[in-house]
């Protein structure tokens, strides 16, 4: 993990549970005496992500439908920390292609770095969920969410004439 990643050490699960009590039902003590969750359990990881975003970034709301990707927040933040090392500017403009229902790159880029973010998505249901996350969190109000109406185009109708982006990211898997 990147040395500046605040999630490189064990999670303070008691703190996270205080911010998001829903997490409690997924926490158990493993054979080494450590509190943990089952990281292969989609619901547990979703509850952990919700707690991390509430506790560390002040989000009031974050949720995704069961059938959507649930990204590991520490790993996604790690990517952005490396971008920040490579492009040492105080403010970057980020384009997230295929942000999905989770909107994770724009959330982390906005809350951790105060970058300006534009996110695109082709799936109307994922776009609706991402917009709900923005609408329910004032700290995310500056994220520009754009619908890609053409499945065979990635950037056409997304990048506007006056747009400029320092970095473009996308969430795997890519279809």
TrEMBL record:
* Keyword match Ion transport: no
Alphabetized GO MF terms:
23S rRNA (adenine(1618)-N(6))-methyltransferase activity
The GO biological-process annotations, alphabetized, read as: rRNA base methylation
Signal peptide (from-to)? none
Print the keywords alphabetically.
Answer: Methyltransferase, Transferase
Give the protein name, as stated in the record.
Answer: 23S rRNA (Adenine1618-N6)-methyltransferase
